[in-house]
Amino acid sequence: MRIVHTPDSSRHDPERYMRRGAPIPHPEQAARYAILRDAAVRGGHDLAEPADHGLDPIRAVHDPDYVAFLAEAWARRDAIPGIGDEILTGAFARPQMHRKPAGLLGRLGLYTADTSTPIRAGTWAAVYGSAQCAVAAADAALAAGHAYALCRPPGHHAYADSAGGFCFLNNSAIAAERMRAATGGPVAILDIDVHHGNGTQGIFYARADVLTVSVHADPSDYFPFFAGYADETGAGAGAGFNRNLPLPPGSGDAPWLEAVEAGLALIAAHRPRALVVALGLDAAADDPIGALAVSRGASSGRRSGSPGPGCPRRWSKRAATSARPCRTTSRPSSPPSTPRARPNAAGAQKVPSARCPVQGAQCKVRSEAAQ
After folding, report:
1. Which of 12, 146, 157, 195 is flagged as catalytic?
2. CATH number, domain with residue 214
């Protein structure tokens, strides 16, 4: 598989993070890039670095002023007396606050949601390079049927005008918009990170041309807390095109697989011309800050039943390996309906197995090493 990566990913290298009132080593470290790259090398994949596609694909989903802030913040660090090796603030804008401050610390509080996204000397190079990987992988998937973007720093918590949850630029959204523009849409995003992709939801919430589906831990007592609930289904033209499938903490293989199958059914009904998988791996039982208990076996294959004709049997990390170029020409005129559940022998609700959504769709699978 073509895997797009950039050594610039390691240039964002935060050291510290405040978690529950105590300083700890920052969980989103530069070493994550090397771990994933080295695994790709051992797997014999086709590694390539991206061309520079400029700012236009980034600005297609992100506010231009926000992008300019990220690009220029480190160069403006002298405006803060006594600045060290990173720019960080403890004052963040709330919904009741609506003025745009001129100073650098005020702008940082306007454009960031928490203390997980400090600006350092190499931050812009890393987040810009990560976004270029997303663009290049999207193009490669359109040409060859599938690709993998090794995106670090991650992206799915980044809104159009805000960083947070270790994320600066929303790589999934950038890739999806790139593919939508090239194919005419619709496009789907399946996010299986243990944390809800709140930034991705926010970017596409009022749009019908990108279906967003997220399987994640219940946010009522888990990051990102303020979004990711089942009743958030889109607004305006996007009503019905955002679907959240939250799971109780500690959920293991069976409920996780049923939720993913339900998400696949929603995507199949949407008949997308391209699919982006936000491939967070932290639903795993052994993830240090995860809230679910998914086994390695469950994350690499279906729980039961068989895939649709021509679909890959490994639909998670390797979902795109069997994807075919899209031949779908129609576009749904209404939101996809939720698949009807049926009781199993124990009386629990079970979601019917879905036709694999990647059949007839071009796919791009990415790494989403989110919070």
Report:
1. 157
2. 3.40.800.20
